[in-house]
Amino acid sequence: MAQKLPHDVFELLLDECQSDGADNTVGLCGLVCKAWLHPSRARLFTTVVLREHNSNSFLDIVQTSPFPIQSFIHTLHIIIRKKNTFLQETKVEVLGPFPEVTALYIDADVRDWIPEMAATFFPNKFPRLSKLSLSVSDTSLYFFDILSAVTPFPTLESLEMDVAGGFDFTTDDVPETYRIPPNWHTLHFDMDMGNIFLEMMFDLASDSDSDSDSEEFSIPLFSTLRLQDSWPQGRSFFGRYLHTYGHKIHRLGFDCASENTSPTRSAVAPLSAVSISE
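-> structure tokens emitted (278 positions)
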């Protein structure tokens, strides 16, 4: 369409679509149909959802565009499914870097792709990333697969993890030299199965304490903490975390069944400075 219509007419059509709130539709059309994209319309690519059916078109645009499409993307969604092949077979590093992306959403049900992202896609590809949402379903991951996937971002401020299949209940695969990045101490952290994650943190810290020759492993002091499937009462690892580090938390959220509401509130009552949401 853009190749046959005069420039000013095409601009008017796009303006009409935008006035109707159809930015996403116009952007998707430009991506899938490989339509001409004038630099003034690059803002249509501020949010990109990358799936199997549009990956080839996106790669074509990246490789043939006279200006770097990646530099216009602020929010990137990547959806990977077992039956898909493109994102697994393509060298993912050719899709980046993404210098202006501040929010990255990964939804994958392919276990092996998480370590691959951590090794080749994440490092140095997102210098300004502040929010990472990682959703992994129908699979089981090693604990270090998770850690290595979510820690290469020096500007990260918010981390959400939904690991529906869970991950291996051991820290044996974590290298002795691994340390939590310093920026995690001010992180907004939201995770399901959070009690297991905190158990792994305490386990790593315990291993560090027992090894006098190694640098101490520091458990992150999250500024905002929201955990699902976790209850802070008793001797749970969530409870241990709140007892030891709760005074550092500014906002706390948790999901629990109605019968657990009272004991949960009792467990967090001493944290008077904490804003609690359920």
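The two ends are 51 Å apart (CA to CA).
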